[in-house]
Fold:
Amino acid sequence: MLGKVVSMVESQVMVEARSLRKDYGSTLAVDDVSFQVSRGEVVGFLGPNGAGKSTTMKMLTGYLSPTAGSAYVGGLDVAADPIAAKTKIGYLPESAPLYDDMMVAEFLRYVADIRRVDGATRRERLETICGRCGLNDVLGKNVGQLSKGYRQRVGLAQAMVHDPDLLILDEPTSGLDPNQIVEIRALIRELGSEKTVILSTHILPEVQASCDRIIIISGGKLVADASPEMLSGGDGASVVRVSVKGDAPAESIFAGVAGVRDVTVLGGEPGGQAFRLRSVSGEDPREAIFRAAVDNGLVLLDLHREQVSLEETFRQLTTTEDGAHA
Structure:
């Protein structure tokens, strides 16, 4: 076991989930979830409500024990060596655990004591964190007097006090107004340049702009693990929009093109026909579509490849055919 831990420490793996499972009585919340996160990576962790995101995050941080499986942080087994593992983790849960009757400065000093931040460097560390999180103007206020935006800033500050290698942030912009979201998003991007970050959020453009990689969980199962660029390409299929004029049966012609998986009829301009064609995974059928139109006497009015949005891919992966969440 020691040899395994050492090899993981020396590797670039910062986080590893191995077949994590969590049961709440008869309810299976997380079902055999496995993934790795490399040092310095910023990973978006997505899923619909009730998918198992927060439960997975709590198991990674050691706040919940898995029913089965293991979690490792920096090569340390979170269950077997929880104190050492937690020194590497900064965690901001969806509802930040703050003490409303304590002043901001007092609360952060308290967290620093719990985190055993060295007394010689604690003052400098707190000054740095408060400056980065924009808290200098509210240090003398009680936490309970703060706005939602400032409370989130305090939550981020407490997660960063001990200078952890890993930040796990669960819905850090939840409930904030647009200006506050922009400010917190900028701070997260800055942190992502120097730390490993796992970020859970429902704001898909935020993930697309900030994350190197996206993991999607649905119904307790991992359903996707890829870059934002790959996921914006859906399942690897091309989506092509084509408009034609002519008397030939265009729908059946395009359905017979090699590499085309399905054809959807769209409303075309007067005298024309418009279609959306989805290819087999990995295929780009535009040249074959062009040749099929020309060979059958169809006048090609438009032919272009459509960009699949991350939102569309998310819906495809997390929604069943009847519209319910998977």
Q: What stands out?
A: The first helix runs from residue 2 to 10. The chain has two domains: 2-231, 239-307.
